[in-house]
């Protein structure tokens, strides 16, 4: 997903005051609360994973 696609998806949501969360992954119905974003550089391993690399990316923290 590109930043533009994420912004468009978020702007389309009806409740613009909702808290943004990300699924924790290991436990169902456990989420991480998003507090900001940070620029980073990645290398894609596959569609779901990346490691440090040279491609620009935005980390949701």
Helix and strand topology:
Layout: H1 3-11, E1 21-23, E2 31-33, E3 37-44, E4 50-52, E5 55-60
Antiparallel strand pairs: 1-2, 3-4, 3-5
Mean of residue pLDDT? 95
**In total, how many domains does the architecture comprise?**
1
Number of helices: 1
Q: Please report the total strand number as a whole number.
A: 5
Q: How many angstroms separate the termini?
A: 16 Å
Portion of residues in beta strands equals: 35-45%
Could you explain how this protein is built, in words?
This protein is mainly beta and 61 residues long. It has one domain. 15% of the residues lie in helices and 38% in strands. The protein has one helix at 3-11; strands spanning 21-23, 31-33, 37-44, 50-52, 55-60. The strands form 2 sheets. Strands 4-3-5 form a 3-stranded antiparallel beta sheet, with no helix packed on it. Strand 3 and strand 4 form a beta hairpin. The mean pLDDT is 95.
Q: What's the gist of this structure?
A:
The chain has one helix at residues 3-11, and strands at 21-23, 31-33, 37-44, 50-52, 55-60. With 61 residues, it is mainly beta. The chain has one domain (3-60).
List keywords for this structure.
mainly beta; 38% strand; two-stranded antiparallel ribbon
